[in-house]
Every structure is written in C-alpha cells, then in structure tokens.
Amino acid sequence: KLHHDLAASFPMDEIGHILREARENRGLTLEEVQAKIRINARYLAAFETGQYDALPTPVHARGFLRNYARF
Q: Which DSSP symbol is given to 55?
C-alpha cells in the first residue's frame, strides 16, 4: 500500500532525491537528522535510496516520511 500511495504522487526515485537534496542543502548528515527527529538513519537512508522494503510497517513508514518531509 505504501508503494502505491507514494508512487501515485511522485515517481519512487524522485521522493528520495528530494529528501536527500533538501538534507544536503542544509548541510546535515543522516546521523544529524536522526538525532533531531528520532528516526533511525537506516530508515532515512532507505527513503533516500528508494529501498522502501527496508522500512517497517506502512503505518510507521508513512509517519516517518511525514516527519522527515516536514523537517
């Protein structure tokens, strides 16, 4: 379901590109973002690289994505 929801709005690789670019433009590492929003860096990296299968349940993944995008 998460794959479908995300793909309906953006191409899968574009979401990760947008998140990574925004983070890098702020000069932050994945670890710094992890410390600020308390989402494990491996999940943040999974979003950035489009490895959605590495994420926990779709409910968690949606919440993580929302928090990361708002950050």
A: S
pLDDT in tens, 10-62: 565 688 899 999 999 999 999 999 999 999 999 999 999 989 889 888 899 88
DSSP state of 27: T
> The pTM is what?
0.79
Task: Report the distance separating Cα 41 and Cα 11, nearest Å.
Answer: 22
Query: Cα separation of 44 and 19, whole Å?
Result: 9
CA distance 51 to 64: 14
| One-letter amino acid of 17 | H
